[in-house]
Amino acid sequence: MTEKKRHMDTQIILIVILIGIAAGMLSGLVGIGGGLIIVPALVYFLGMSQHTAQGTSLGLILLPVGILAVLAYYKQGHVDVKIVGLLAIGFIAGSYLGSKISLSLSQETVKKIFAVLMILIAIKMIFFDKPKQVNTHAIGVQKKDD
Fold first, then answer.
1. Which terminus of the chain has fewer Cβ atoms in its 10 Å neighbourhood, N or C?
2. CA distances from 68 to 27, 28, 89 (A)
């Protein structure tokens, strides 16, 4: 079931733009945005269902909204185009399968899965991630000063 179309008054437009700015800034800063920022913001600030928020977030990444951030990283030698291509292939398959699974579950179940995943990732990042030396040559990435 889809939700009814909402009236886009000035307040809603400003909230959505601010959500986009926050997600874009965090995406450019640390590579996150859609799932971690946009989905919860759409649920809590606009009252969307979990499924509609996820679908809306997925609709965003289909457009080249991050192209300027990608170009900035690419110019600094921080984009591995081969890896991007492989990730895209995996993302296409994974997003299709994930959407099928998500849509077969209740909204409450999906919300709980989402929340548990965010908590587990946060715990891992805070307590278990150790600084690692990355061998950039092993994966084909070259630093600018090489």
1. N
2. 12, 9, 22
Q: Does residue 113 lie in a domain region?
A: yes
Confirm whether 117 is domain-assigned. yes
Closest by CA to 26, choosing from 14, 10, 41, is: 41
Q: What is the pLDDT of residues 96-143, one digit of tens each?
A: 888 889 889 998 998 898 888 889 888 987 898 777 665 555 555 555
Please name the residues in contact with 37: beta carbons below 8 A apart, sequence gap of 6 or more: 19, 22, 23, 26
What would the mean pLDDT of 45-73 be, rounded to a whole number?
Answer: 80
Segment of 13-22, 86-95, 127-136 carrying the highest mean pLDDT? 13-22
SS3 17: helix
User: What is the extent of the structural domain holding 74?
Assistant: 10-128
State how many domains the chain has. Answer: 1
